Amino acid sequence: MREEIVNAAVEQFHSRGFNAAGVKDITDSAGVPKGSFYNHFVSKEALAVVALERYGETRRLPELADTSVDPLLRLRRHFEFLRDENTVRGHSRGCLIGGFGTEMADHSDVIREAVRAGLERWAQALAAPIAQAQASGQVTAVTDAGTLARFILNAWEGTLISARSEHAEASYEVFFGTVFGTLLV
């Protein structure tokens, strides 16, 4: 039952946001009684933290560490997967981590910390192939790999906001062109 609630919460939070997704919406979506929610979670915020962790697990971060694949190809594939995931949804969702960051960071210390930790894990995963590309000479080492990773992640989150507001792929083209055509050279 806990897994059903978590899965439903990821879906409800991702499609509706934290504030618009009520506990009843989540339990109804999970097909469980509302009272069972409190057997597994002390609060909606506690569930949001678990939902963020679960969502983070779906970002395919381990693939960024696969050294059998060229580091820049790993990075490109990572963002292509994320782009395609959003395109299939009609540019209607963006990123749950970024969404919670903009919606809840000023209102919940618990969620803000979970967002911060999720972004940090993601940036570290991105930094590894960037550092490898720098070590091999594919990318200039003028800027630290961690700094580049964080900048690219921030650019990605902004790209998702633009794509959602435009309901178009133009923002993705700018992201890929700038990151892989200018920044990582």
**Tally the helices: what do you get?**
9
CATH first level of the largest domain: which class?
Answer: Mainly Alpha
Q: Summarize model confidence as the mean pLDDT.
A: 97
Level-2 CATH architecture of the largest domain: Orthogonal Bundle
Which overall shape is indicated by the principal axes computed on the Cα atoms?
A: elongated
Helix/strand order, N-terminal first = HHHHHHHHH
Mind telling me the CATH superfamily name of the largest domain?
A: Tetracycline Repressor, domain 2
Question: In this structure, how is the largest beta sheet organized?
Answer: none
Give helix % range: over 70%
Low-confidence stretches: none
Q: Using the CA coordinates, give the radius of gyration.
A: 18 Å
Structural domain count: 2
Strand composition percent? under 5%
Strand pairing plus helix content: what structural class? mainly alpha
How many DSSP E strands? 0
Give the CATH topology of the largest domain: Tetracycline Repressor, domain 2
Distance between the termini: 48 Å
